[in-house]
Amino acid sequence: MKTMSIIGSTGSIGTQALEVAKKHNIAIEGLAVFGNTELLAKQAKEFAVKKICVFDESKKAELSALVDRDVEVLTGMDGLCEIARMDTDIFLNSVVGMVGLKPTVEALLAKRTKDFRIALANKETLVAGGEIVMKLSKEKGIPVLPVDSEHSAIFQCLQGNDKKSLNKIFLTASGGPFFGKTKEEIAGASVEEALNHPNWSMGRKITIDSATLMNKGLEFIEAIRLFDVTPEQIEVVVHRESVVHSAVEYKDFSVIAQMGVPDMKIPIQYAVLYPERTDCPTKQLSLTDYGTLTFKKPDYETFDCLRACIEAVKIGGTMPAMVNGANEEAVAAFLDGKIKFLQIGELVTAVLSEFNKKEITCLDDVFEADRIAREFVKNRIS
Question: How many CB atoms lie within 10 A of CB 151?
């Protein structure tokens, strides 16, 4: 029986991962969430979990009252890292934001007594600290397997082929709820409109990132880290149906794509069970039901977050961490009604002109860049 620990277990990825675990008899040994104590307690009971964590330290007593006495309750970043260090077969990181970086590093550094892999759904880990994380992954011999549907698709398309023959990657994007609209048309977009994603059911922050195409910008950076390619080897393509999850082109110009219904259980299961393929708790794809699949170029002028991410990774150093930090702060402000929708992209882009890159030598460099970017955004808003 495989064992797994999950941080972010009550979110969209986490809950679907538990469905996969239940279907394939994977034992859950540790769970962590930000603040949803009620659902965490239910998960802990259903999967007989003995170690759980709520990141919000003020909710420890509330969580303790909901679970049996023999369940160990942890809190804060220390708790997340303890879950990450558990001696399981799989560590699934599905939290949102920079909070996911340190637990990933801790999971890589922990002593292990068995084969181990990290199933990664936390974009910020690779966007902000990708150089450190992938170096550790190589040194420790611990695979970091992507859970994002796009990167899972790329990973699958590379199987059985020589990486040296890869020509480029087609990174697909749904285009979000505002595809085809101009800046003038979305200037007054409400939170509700931005959260109305056409294909995927995701958390609020990621859904806003999809609306601004920041999500695709973060995935652009992730792809560079995961697959060791250059920015010039990635082409972003808007694919509204979200059936082709991404594709790769080889040097003979043969293109291999991975397809499936837009359901995250497919990439979750692939990362968890790799290289095994077996029944997945999702629907089968019917191409005739879709009939037509479309592909368009993205609008880099309207969706300037995407352009900012590409520029940031080309500059390198701390700049990807800075645009990410600025975006997290700006999205939170938009969701709180403090700024307009288009200001998210303006604030993310402003970081590029206001600051110079610094080289990353350790995690502290990443966290400091993140802090500076957040302070910059807060000062601009106030």
Answer: 27
Q: What is the mean pLDDT of the chain?
A: 96
C-alpha angle with apex 188: 187 to 189, nearest 5 degrees?
A: 95
Question: pLDDT digit string (tens) for 139-169?
Answer: 999 999 999 999 999 999 999 999 999 999 9
Listed residue (191, 236, 185) closest to 213, CA to CA: 236
Q: Which of 250, 266, 230, 252 is nearest to 159 (CA)?
A: 250
Extract the tokens encoding 25: 């008899």
φ, ψ dihedrals at 347, nearest 5°: -70, -40
Q: Read off the amino acid at residue 124.
A: E
Nearest residue to 221 (alpha-carbon basis) of 288, 137, 105, 131: 131
| Spatial contact of 20 and 71, defined as CB atoms under 8 Å apart | no
* Owner of token pair 């479309």: 294
Span 66-73, mean pLDDT? 96
Check residue 362 and report its DSSP letter. Answer: S
How many residues are given for the chain?
382
How far are the Cα atoms of 137, 191, 334, 340, 346 from residue 188, in angstroms, in the given order? Answer: 44, 10, 12, 7, 14
pLDDT digits (tens, 9 = 90+) for 274-293: 999 999 999 999 999 999 99
Q: Say which residues have a Cβ less than 8 Å from residue 105's Cβ, sequence separation at least 6.
A: 129, 132, 133, 136, 363
Give tens-digit pLDDT for 76-124: 999 999 999 999 999 999 999 999 999 999 999 998 878 999 999 999 8
Angle (deg, nearest 10), helices 123-140 and 214-227:
10
Please give the Cα distance from 382 to 377 (Å, whole number): 9
What is the distance of C-alpha 315 from the center of its chain? 22
DSSP assignment of 95-156 equals: --SGGGHHHHHHHHHS--SS--EEEE--HHHHHHHHHHHHHHHHHHT--EEE-SHHHHHHHH
CA nearest neighbour of 305 among 253, 361, 344, 250 = 344
Please, which residues have CB within 8 angstroms of residue 111's CB and are 6 or more apart in sequence?
Answer: none
The whole-number pLDDT of residue 111 equals 87
